[in-house]
Amino acid sequence: LARNANKYVDRDKRIRSTQNIEYNFLAPDSINEIFNGLELLKKFTGRAAKEKGYKGSEKEEDILGESLLNDSTADLKNLEIFATGFENNSRPTQLLKVKEAYAVYKQLIIYYGIQNMIDYIQEHDVASLSELLEILPSEPVRLNWLNIGGQLLPENSVHTLLESCKAGEFTNWEQVHTFYKENGQLYKDQKLQHAFASLVELLHIKPTNLSSALFKDLLNQALATKEWMVINIYNSRAKDYQSDFRKMVYDNDEEMEKVIGKLEDNVFIDQQRKELELLRSQIDKIILDFNL
After folding, report:
1. For residues 51 and 43, what is the distance between their CA atoms, to the nearest angstrom?
2. Cβ distance 56 to 69 under 8 Å?
3. CA 16 to chain centre
4. How far is CA 248 from CA 139, 259, 263, in A?
5. What distance in Å separates the CA atoms of residue 108 and residue 106, rounded to the nearest whole number?
6. How many degrees, rounded to 5, is the angle at CA 228 between CA 223 and CA 231?
7. What is the pTM of this model?
8. In DSSP terms, which residues pair with 147 in a beta bridge?
9. Which helix (H) or strand (E) holds 81?
10. H or E element in which residue 151 lies
11. Those residues with Cβ within 8 angstroms of residue 269's Cβ, 6 or more apart along the chain or in another chain
């Protein structure tokens, strides 16, 4: 996903980039899908636990599932968790590594939220956490988003566009293009609000409860997630150098490296490592400037 995001940017050869296209795989629409995934994992886990007669089975399915998935001591390896409505088939759909997936989903939401907040802090020279909280909405709402030709728009904005066309307020394509452009200019701020809303919803807190200690912890969690991404990007690429099927067309490793290059010289891996170090320095500076 990370490699594709970079490739799509490089392949965008538009002469006039008037439409604001989102290439990041962590964006308002995909984050909302992750939230949907969390709800399904909670529901299916709770349902399986109730059928198994777990302690606390009097709880609602999603509440029981959430408590089990968030309990580091709960062992779900012997719990068979099945999903419904996933396949047009009579056979059951079993979910594997549910607890691991649940944890990764949560970390990705935190990473998304913190990354957007860091970007805003860097761009606007925000000097303290209190200043940041004054800028962020006091009652953030995680809106539904739609992908309209690569440009992400809040669902209510799309409805505004459609209703304006139906009502005859938009009578030509130039007006539609202007609507896209104007909404594209709002995207950064809307995305920041969505990112903040996602954070507080995931953490079950009010915006005013985002303390210095909690914010510092979230910064470190985001950094750990980026480190995990970079390690797995490297390991994923390394498999290409270890696969017997890929190596069979070369006489030896030296010949293979001459053709496809050395793993350590991979441009994308190097770029990801640089992004990691940049994030690390940004977080260190924020912790120092914000006196966290």
Report:
1. 12
2. no
3. 28
4. 59, 13, 17
5. 5
6. 125
7. 0.89
8. 152
9. strand 81-83
10. strand 151-154
11. 230, 233, 234, 237, 263
CB 7 within 8 A of CB 25: no
CA distance 283 to 237: 27
Beta bridge partners of 94: 82
For residue 234 the two structure tokens come to 């490297």
According to DSSP, the residues that pair with 151 across neighbouring strands are 148
- pLDDT by position in tens, the chain (length 292): 888 887 877 788 887 777 888 999 999 999 999 999 999 999 999 999 988 887 666 678 889 999 999 998 888 888 999 998 888 888 889 999 999 999 999 999 999 999 999 999 999 999 999 999 999 998 999 999 999 988 999 999 999 999 999 999 999 999 999 999 999 999 999 999 999 999 999 999 999 899 999 999 999 999 999 999 999 888 887 777 777 777 787 878 788 778 877 777 778 888 889 999 999 999 999 999 999 9
